[in-house]
């Protein structure tokens, strides 16, 4: 086994937390059951990793096997990467040719060929995932240097849909090539970057495919929807009277209509780039009479932005209904906005 | 009258005379009254009589008024009766309309479409079925606004929902729903066939069944035995129409270098026709020697 491969595998094992070691090894399915049984998983990490690397050497692990292990690790720790969303278009559709006869094997071979043709040194690996998604890992090299296995790009593609999710590549110069390979292999004509970015791949998927993890108002059950608001019900003490009860109920209703009852997809920020003229109620002031638009950037950050927005009006911090610029985020599939005067 | 009292001691004559006069006076007064009584009662009688007469007149007048009013009411009641019959007939019409609509909704339910009102619009549930089996259900939540838009749904990501919505949602909702229904039923049928092939007939397959998300490209290699010989055939099924459950293109090729004998060539062609006309699991059932499928039957299409 190549030294670089051994080193790469060793570093991968060191990254994996001890609690996940067994599950990841089983998913990798490279070391056999009998081999794994000889390993003592209760020892400390460094000696354990050394044992595992030795076993891999015995079985002559290749670079592709190591790349597969890397994919599995990333699939489990997908929130460690920041994901961008891209949408592909088919372009002008000729009648009779618009049905996507997607063949995964054709896609994989076509994709790999295009990359290999352009760059001699590139490692491409594929792994199928849930819901027919295919994870692609690309380690980039150049004509003269070997691929850098530690800065791989990840692409998650849902075949027969126009959407692709990519982890931000630090090696930006390869992006045009990657885009082209994707387009040609999947028979699309155009790829456009959406203004949507987050660490939470599953939330991005839910937004883009308009599928939320939720209990739909099922057609069979007559059970009433869960009460999501606790504001009106926390104090059952009869000595406490809720002022503005009507207003509070209105706010609850408006919030429920805008956001729904289900848990919101998880985003960490929303960014608004404003290029609008300054509007002020005060007469005069330095900024008031400027003809040029004022440029400023507003960024909302939160561990869970949409849930935070949902709780603004019930908490009394903002008026209901909230500004459509805030509430349109899941429906429009954007969390980067550029706002100009019309 | 004191002298009368004082004179009693003197003799009864004086007291007597005044008292006598008094008595006579009172007698006279009483007899006057007796005489006046009948006169008075007579006057009273006559006044009462006139009063009675007046009252009788009043009574008759009121009676006449009451009768007249009653007659009026009866007349108007008679004229409103035809209105009431009109109301009942309208009600009947509405009731029959309602029954028809309910029956229509139930009929739609059998086609797999059912709907429910939500706070903002309509939630449509599409049930899919194939070959007598009820398969998955999918929900689409529509918000009734101008323009109509889809709030969320449980349709799989590879079904071209956006395209179908772009074509029909704004102009013809019914067409949108039916088109979506066709796509989902087509997908469910193809998926069912592919799943059945993988699970029930794995023994025939030499290698995994290759399929894509929409199950509209299926390729597999399978073993065929005929008269002691066994060959490997590769089949590639393309479903170019997403609403169908039978392939539009079938190619069966022989895995191997030597050319096929005529009998094997016939087999190959018959297999191609079989895949084109029968669902996948039924075709394999016939290979397993189950039902002998009569190739002369017209092709049946499952939706």
TrEMBL record, chain A:
<keyword id="KW-0137">Centromere</keyword>
<dbReference type="GO" id="GO:0007059">
    <property type="term" value="P:chromosome segregation"/>
</dbReference>
<comment type="similarity">
    <text>Belongs to the CENP-N/CHL4 family.</text>
</comment>
<dbReference type="InterPro" id="IPR052011">
    <property type="entry name" value="CENP-NAC/CAD_complex"/>
</dbReference>
<protein>
    <submittedName>
        <fullName>Centromere protein N</fullName>
    </submittedName>
</protein>
<dbReference type="InterPro" id="IPR007902">
    <property type="entry name" value="Chl4/mis15/CENP-N"/>
</dbReference>
<keyword id="KW-0539">Nucleus</keyword>
<dbReference type="GO" id="GO:0005654">
    <property type="term" value="C:nucleoplasm"/>
</dbReference>
<dbReference type="GO" id="GO:0034080">
    <property type="term" value="P:CENP-A containing chromatin assembly"/>
</dbReference>
<dbReference type="GO" id="GO:0000939">
    <property type="term" value="C:inner kinetochore"/>
</dbReference>
<dbReference type="Pfam" id="PF05238">
    <property type="entry name" value="CENP-N"/>
</dbReference>
<keyword id="KW-0158">Chromosome</keyword>
């Amino acid at each position: 086994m190549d030294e670089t491969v051994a080193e790469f595998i060793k570093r991968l094992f060191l990254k994996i937390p001890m609690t996940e070691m067994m599950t990841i090894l089983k998913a990798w399915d490279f070391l056999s059951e009998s081999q794994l049984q000889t390993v003592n998983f209760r020892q400390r990490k460094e000696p354990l990793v050394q044992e595992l690397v030795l076993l891999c050497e015995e079985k002559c692990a290749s670079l592709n096997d190591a790349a597969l292990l890397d994919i599995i690790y990333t699939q489990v720790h997908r929130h460690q990467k920041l994901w961008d969303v891209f949408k592909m278009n088919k372009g002008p559709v000729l009648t009779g040719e618009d049905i996507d006869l997607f063949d995964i094997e054709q896609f994989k071979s076509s994709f790999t060929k295009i990359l290999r043709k352009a760059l001699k040194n590139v490692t491409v690996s594929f792994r199928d995932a849930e819901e027919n998604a295919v994870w692609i890992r690309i380690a980039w090299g150049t004509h003269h240097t070997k691929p850098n296995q530690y800065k791989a790009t990840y692409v998650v593609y849902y075949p027969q849909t126009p959407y692709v999710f990519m982890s931000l590549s630090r090696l930006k110069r390869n992006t045009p090539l990657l885009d082209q390979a994707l387009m040609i292999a999947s028979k699309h004509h155009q790829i456009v970057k959406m203004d949507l970015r987050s660490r939470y791949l599953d939330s991005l998927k839910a937004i883009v495919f308009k599928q939320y993890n939720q209990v739909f108002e099922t057609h069979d059950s007559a059970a009433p929807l869960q009460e999501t608001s606790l504001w009106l019900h926390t104090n059952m003490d009869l000595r406490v009277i809720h002022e503005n009860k009507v207003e509070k109920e209105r706010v609850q209703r408006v919030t429920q209509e805008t956001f729904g009852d289900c848990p919101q997809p998880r985003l960490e920020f929303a960014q608004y780039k404003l290029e609008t003229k300054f509007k002020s109620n005060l007469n005069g002031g330095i900024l008031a009479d400027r003809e040029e638009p004022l440029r400023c950037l507003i960024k909302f950050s939160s561990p869970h932005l949409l849930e935070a927005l949902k709780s603004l009006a019930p908490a009394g911090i903002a008026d209901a209904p909230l500004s459509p610029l805030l509430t349109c985020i899941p429906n429009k599939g954007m969390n980067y906005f550029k706002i100009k005067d019309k | 009258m004191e002298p009368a009292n004082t004179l009693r001691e003197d003799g009864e004559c004086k007291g007597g005379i005044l008292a006598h006069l008094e008595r006579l006076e009172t007698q006279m007064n009483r007899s006057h009254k007796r005489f006046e009584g009948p006169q008075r009662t007579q006057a009273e009688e006559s006044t009462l009589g006139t009063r009675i007469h007046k009252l009788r007149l009043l009574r008759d007048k009121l009676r006449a008024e009451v009768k007249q009013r009653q007659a009026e009411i009866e007349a108007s009641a008679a004229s409103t009766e035809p209105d009431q019959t009109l109301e009942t007939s309208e009600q009947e019409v509405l009731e029959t309309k309602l029954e028809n609509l309910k029956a229509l909704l139930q009929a739609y339910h059998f086609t797999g479409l059912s709907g429910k009102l939500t706070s903002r619009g309509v939630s449509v549930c599409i049930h899919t079925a194939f070959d007598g089996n009820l398969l998955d259900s999918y929900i689409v939540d529509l918000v009734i606004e101008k323009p109509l838009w889809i709030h969320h749904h449980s349709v799989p990501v590879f079904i071209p929902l956006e395209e179908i919505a772009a074509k029909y949602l704004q102009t013809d909702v019914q067409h949108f729903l039916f088109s979506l229904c066709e796509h989902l039923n087509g997908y469910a049928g193809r998926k069912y066939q592919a799943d059945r092939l993988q699970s029930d007939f794995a023994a025939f397959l030499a290698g995994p069944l290759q399929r894509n998300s929409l199950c509209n490209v299926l390729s597999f290699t399978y073993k065929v035995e005929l008269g002691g010989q066994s060959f490997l055939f590769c089949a590639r099924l393309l479903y170019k129409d997403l609403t169908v459950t039978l392939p539009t293109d079938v190619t069966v090729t022989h895995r191997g270098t030597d050319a096929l004998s005529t009998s094997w060539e016939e087999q190959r062609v018959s297999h191609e026709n079989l895949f084109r006309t029968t669902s996948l699991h039924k075709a394999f059932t016939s290979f397993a020697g189950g039902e002998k499928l009569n190739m002369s039957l017209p092709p049946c299409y499952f939706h």
